[in-house]
C-alpha cells in the first residue's frame, strides 16, 4: 500500500464497514424469515413484524445507497446499461417489497404504458433508486401505491405515486438544491434525492442526461417521484 | 406462477443456512428436484452428471475457491450446461460482481441477497418467459450452428420487432463465428451509434485489432473506457493493442489499472507479469506473476508460463545481489511445480532447469548450477518439439548467460532455420548475436521461398514447387517453406495425388512436426497433414 503513511482513509473504512454491515444484515434477514416460517401464523403476523420487515428493507436500502455514494465519490461506480424487460424490472421491485406492502395493508400495483417492452438502463443502479423510493412511499402512503412506466418522446419516465400527505412544500421548492447536494440537512430523504439524481445523470444519450423530479398530486393525490431516462 | 415441478435446481452456496432457506422457498413453489453444493468445484462435478434447468450460484464462495464467474466460465466452455438453462448469480453486492465478471460469459441474471420467495418466483418466471421466447436461438447455439442462430434471430425480430434488442448479442457472436467481418463491423458500429454497451465496444475493438486496424481499435477502446471506466475487459483490449504496437510501458499502466479494478483474473495478472518483465519492472512483474500462479490453482487458465515468468522476475530483480533465503524457497517451489506437473513437456522441463540454474549461479552455487545446465543442454539436444520464436530467444539468452555459448548458438541457428522468413524474429535474433554465418544462414532459402510465393500467386504452380523444393533443401525445418512445399505438391497433384507426391508431402511435413500448437500456422499445418495422410 502506497498511502500507508497517510494513516486511515476514513471514507474507505466506512465503505468496507458498510460492506460488512450489509452482509451481516442479509444474514439477519435470512435468519429472521426462516424463524418466522416456523412460528404459528398468529405469532408470525403482527404490527411489530411489519415494523421489523420495513426497517430491514430501509436499512438495507440505506447501506446500498451509502456504498453507492462512496463509489460515486471515488469514481468507481460501475455503470453497465443494457436492455431490460420493464415488466420484469418493476414487477421484481414490487415483489421483493410485497411482504411489507401486505403488512401495511397497502394496495400496490403497476402499469406499463410503453410501446417498447424493453428499457435501456443499468438495472442495479436504477433498481436501488426505485427500491428506496418505493420503501419511502410505503412509509407515507395511506392505502395505495402506483408505479407507472411511460414514454415521453425518446425518454422513459418511471413514476412512483402514493396517496399520503406528499412531500413538504419546502422540499419541492428547493429540489434543485437537494439534487445538487447543496442542502442535505433533512436527513435520508434529501440524501436519497441526491443519490437518485446522480444515478439518473449517469444515463446519458446524445447529450441528454437523465434526471429526477418530485411533486405532489399525481395519480393518487399524494407524493409523486419521477425518474426520466433518455 | 409458472409450473416448476418438473424442473431441476442446483443451489450453490457456502452457507448451510442460505442453502436451507432457498431450498424451502423452492419447496413452497412446488419444486422437488433440488440439489445443493457448497463449492463451485462440487457444482461443476454435479453438472457433469446431471443436466440442471436452473442454477442459483453464490458469487463469492470463500478465498482460494472458484468464484461464481469462474464456475460459469467452466460450465459454458466445457458445455456442461445448455444455453436453455438459467444461471442466476446470487450476490451480496451486485455492482462488485459486475466488475469482476468477464464480458464473454454473463449470467442470465444477478439476484441480490437478501431476497424472498415472491422476489425469487417473479425473477424466475420472467427468466423462463425470456428463454422461451429465445428458444430457437438457444437451441441453435447448443447445436453450435451460427447460421441457424442468425435465422432464428431474424424470425424473432419479424414476429415482434420490439424484441430485436434481445438478439443483438447473439447476432454479433454468430456473425463473428461465420467470419462475416465487414457485416459484423457495420452491425457493431450501428449498435454503438444508437445505444453503446461495453460488450459492443469490446467486440468491435477485438474485431478491428484482429483485422490489422490497430489505430482504429485503439480509438474504439479509448472511447469505450471513457464511457465505461469500470469495465476491466476494455482495458485488457487496449493493452493488447498497445503492446502489439510496441508501446509496452503504456500497455503496462493500462493493465495495472485493470488489475486495480479487478485483481481476480489469472490471464490478466499473467499478461501484466509478462509486460512488466519486458519493461524491466521486476517488482510489478513478480507481484503479478505471483498472483497468476496462486489464482491459477483453482482456475482453468492455470499456465506454467506464469511459474517460469515469476522465477525470471525474481532472479532479475536480484541481479548482482545474490538471492535471499525466502526468494530461494519461492524459486524452488514455483519451478518444482512445473517440473513435477508437466513431465511430458520437454521444452518446459528444459526451461525450468535452465532458470533454476541461473538462480543457483546467482546465489553463488556455481557447481550445482553447472550440473543442472549440462543436464538441461543434454535434454535440449533430444528435443523434437520446436520452441516458439519468443521462447527460443529467451532460452538462447539464458544459455549465453550461463556460459553455454555453444548451446546458445545452436538454439539461435535452429531458430533462424525454423523462423528465418519472419523479419521481426530475425531482428530479435540480431540483438543476441552479430555472427554473419548465423544471421545470413537462411537468406538464400528465404529468397527462394519468396520467389516461390510469387510464382504460386501468378498461377505458375510447377515453377513455385521447384523454388520451394530448393528452399526446403537448404532449410528443411523452416515451417513456412515446408507448408508451402506441401501445399504446392497437393495443388499440382490435383484430385488423385500419386503416392509419390503424398510421400514427399508427408516427408516435408514430418520435418516441421515440432511446430508449437500456439503458432498461428498450426491450423494450416494440421489441415495439410490430414490431406497428406488421410487420402
Automatic annotation (TrEMBL), chain A:
Alphabetized Gene3D superfamilies for the sequence: Histidine kinase-like ATPase, C-terminal domain (3.30.565.10)
GO process annotations (BP): osmosensory signaling via phosphorelay pathway
Group of enzyme by EC: transferase
Protein name, per record: histidine kinase
InterPro entries: BphY/WalK/GraS-like (IPR050351), HATPase_C_sf (IPR036890), HATPase_dom (IPR003594), His_kinase_dom (IPR005467), Sig_transdc_His_kin-like_C (IPR004358)
GO molecular function: ATP binding; phosphorelay response regulator activity; protein histidine kinase activity; protein kinase activator activity
Domain annotation Histidine kinase: ranges: 16-230
SMART domains cross-referenced by the UniProt entry: HATPase_c (SM00387)
SUPFAM superfamilies from the UniProt entry: ATPase domain of HSP90 chaperone/DNA topoisomerase II/histidine kinase
Classification via Pfam families: HATPase_c
Entry's EC annotation: 2.7.13.3
Hydrolase found in the keyword field: no
Reactions this protein catalyses: ATP + protein L-histidine = ADP + protein N-phospho-L-histidine
Keywords: ATP-binding, Kinase, Nucleotide-binding, Transferase, Two-component regulatory system
Keyword Transferase tagged: yes
Transmembrane segments: none
TrEMBL record, chain B:
S-adenosyl-L-methionine is among the record's keywords: no
CDD domains (alphabetical): REC_TPR
A Pfam family it matches: Response_reg
Transmembrane segments: none
Keyword Oxidoreductase (UniProt): no
Keyword tags: Phosphoprotein, TPR repeat
Modification 4-aspartylphosphate, positions: 58
Domain called Response regulatory: residue spans: 8-128
GO biological process, one term: phosphorelay signal transduction system
TPR repeat intervals: 445-478
Coiled coil ranges: none
Protein name, per record: Tetratricopeptide repeat protein
Amino acid at each position: 500500500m502506497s498511502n500507508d503513511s497517510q494513516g486511515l482513509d476514513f471514507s474507505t473504512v466506512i465503505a468496507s464497514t458498510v460492506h460488512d454491515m450489509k452482509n451481516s444484515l442479509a444474514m439477519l434477514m435470512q435468519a429472521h424469515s426462516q424463524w418466522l416460517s416456523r412460528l404459528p401464523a398468529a405469532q408470525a403476523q403482527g404490527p411489530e413484524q411489519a415494523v421489523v420487515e420495513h426497517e430491514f428493507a430501509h436499512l438495507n436500502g440505506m447501506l446500498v445507497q451509502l456504498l453507492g455514494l462512496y463509489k460515486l465519490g471515488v469514481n468507481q461506480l460501475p455503470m453497465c446499461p443494457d436492455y431490460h424487460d420493464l415488466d420484469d424490472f418493476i414487477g421484481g421491485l414490487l415483489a421483493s417489497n410485497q411482504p411489507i406492502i401486505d403488512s401495511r395493508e397497502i394496495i400496490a400495483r403497476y402499469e406499463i404504458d410503453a410501446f417498447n417492452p424493453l428499457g435501456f438502463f443499468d438495472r442495479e443502479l436504477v433498481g436501488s433508486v426505485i427500491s428506496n423510493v418505493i420503501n419511502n412511499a410505503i412509509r407515507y402512503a395511506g392505502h395505495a401505491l402506483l408505479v407507472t412506466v411511460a414514454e415521453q418522446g425518446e425518454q422513459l419516465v418511471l413514476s412512483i405515486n402514493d396517496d399520503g400527505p406528499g412531500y413538504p412544500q419546502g422540499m419541492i421548492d428547493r429540489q434543485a438544491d437537494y439534487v445538487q447536494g447543496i442542502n442535505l440537512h433533512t436527513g435520508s430523504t434529501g440524501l436519497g434525492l441526491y443519490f437518485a439524481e446522480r444515478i439518473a445523470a449517469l444515463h446519458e444519450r446524445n447529450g441528454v442526461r437523465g434526471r429526477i423530479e418530485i411533486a405532489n398530486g399525481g395519480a393518487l393525490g399524494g407524493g409523486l417521484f419521477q425518474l426520466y431516462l433518455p | 406462477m409458472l409450473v416448476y415441478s418438473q424442473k431441476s435446481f442446483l443451489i450453490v452456496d457456502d452457507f448451510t443456512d442460505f442453502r436451507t432457506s432457498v431450498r424451502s422457498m423452492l419447496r413452497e413453489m412446488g419444486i422437488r428436484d433440488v440439489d445443493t453444493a457448497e463449492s463451485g468445484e462440487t457444482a461443476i462435478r454435479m453438472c457433469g452428471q446431471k443436466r440442471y434447468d436452473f442454477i442459483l450460484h453464490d458469487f463469492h464462495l470463500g478465498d482460494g475457491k472458484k468464484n461464481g464467474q469462474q464456475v460459469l466460465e467452466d460450465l459454458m466452455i466445457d458445455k456442461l450446461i445448455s444455453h436453455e438453462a438459467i444461471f442466476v448469480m446470487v450476490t451480496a453486492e451486485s455492482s462488485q460482481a459486475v466488475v469482476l465478471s468477464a464480458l464473454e460469459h454473463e449470467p442470465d441474471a444477478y439476484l441480490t441477497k437478501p431476497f424472498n420467495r415472491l422476489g425469487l418466483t417473479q425473477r424466475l418466471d420472467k427468466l423462463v418467459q425470456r428463454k422461451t421466447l429465445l428458444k430457437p436461438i438457444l437451441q441453435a447455439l447448443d447445436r453450435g450452428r451460427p447460421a441457424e442462430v442468425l435465422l432464428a434471430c431474424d424470425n424473432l425480430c419479424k414476429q415482434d420487432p420490439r424484441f430485436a434488442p434481445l438478439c443483438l448479442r447473439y447476432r454479433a457472436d454468430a456473425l463473428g463465428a461465420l467470419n462475416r467481418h465487414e457485416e459484423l463491423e457495420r452491425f457493431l458500429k450501428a449498435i454503438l451509434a444508437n445505444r453503446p454497451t461495453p460488450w459492443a465496444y469490446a467486440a468491435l475493438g477485438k474485431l478491428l485489432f484482429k483485422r490489422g486496424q490497430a489505430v482504429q481499435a485503439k480509438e474504439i477502446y479509448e472511447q469505450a473506457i471513457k464511457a465505461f471506466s469500470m469495465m476491466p475487459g476494455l482495458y485488457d483490449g487496449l493493452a493488447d493493442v498497445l503492446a502489439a504496437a510496441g508501446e509496452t510501458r503504456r500497455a503496462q499502466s493500462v493493465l495495472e489499472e485493470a488489475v486495480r479494478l479487478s485483481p481476480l483474473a489469472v490471464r490478466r495478472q499473467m499478461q501484466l507479469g509478462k509486460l512488466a518483465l519486458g519493461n524491466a519492472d521486476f517488482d510489478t512483474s513478480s507481484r503479478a506473476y505471483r498472483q497468476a500462479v496462486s489464482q491459477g490453482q483453482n482456475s482453468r487458465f492455470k499456465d506454467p508460463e506464469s511459474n517460469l515468468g515469476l522465477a525470471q522476475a525474481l532472479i532479475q530483480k536480484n541481479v548482482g545481489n545474490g538471492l535471499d533465503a525466502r526468494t530461494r524457497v519461492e524459486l524452488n517451489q514455483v519451478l518444482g511445480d512445473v517440473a513435477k506437473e508437466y513431465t511430458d513437456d520437454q521444452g518446459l522441463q528444459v526451461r525450468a532447469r535452465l532458470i533454476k540454474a541461473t538462480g543457483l549461479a546467482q546465489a553463488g552455487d556455481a557447481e550445482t548450477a553447472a550440473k543442472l545446465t549440462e543436464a538441461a543442454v543434454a535434454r535440449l539436444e533430444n528435443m523434437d518439439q520446436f520452441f516458439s520464436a519468443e521462447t527460443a530467444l529467451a532460452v538462447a539468452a539464458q544459455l549465453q548467460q550461463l556460459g553455454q555459448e555453444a548451446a546458445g548458438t545452436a538454439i539461435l541457428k535452429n531458430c533462424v532455420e525454423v523462423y528465418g522468413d519472419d523479419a521481426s524474429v530475425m531482428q530479435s535474433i540480431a540483438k543476441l548475436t552479430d555472427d554473419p554465418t548465423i544471421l545470413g544462414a537462411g537468406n538464400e532459402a528465404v529468397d527462394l521461398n519468396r520467389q516461390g510465393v510469387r510464382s504460386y500467386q501468378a498461377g505458375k504452380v510447377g515453377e513455385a514447387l521447384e523454388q520451394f523444393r530448393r528452399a526446403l533443401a537448404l532449410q528443411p525445418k523452416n515451417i513456412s517453406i515446408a507448408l508451402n512445399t506441401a501445399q504446392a505438391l497437393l495443388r499440382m497433384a490435383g484430385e488423385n495425388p500419386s503416392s509419390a507426391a503424398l510421400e514427399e508431402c508427408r516427408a516435408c511435413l514430418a520435418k516441421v512436426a515440432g511446430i508449437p500448437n500456439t503458432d498461428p500456422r498450426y491450423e494450416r499445418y494440421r489441415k495439410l497433414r490430414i490431406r497428406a495422410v488421410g487420402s
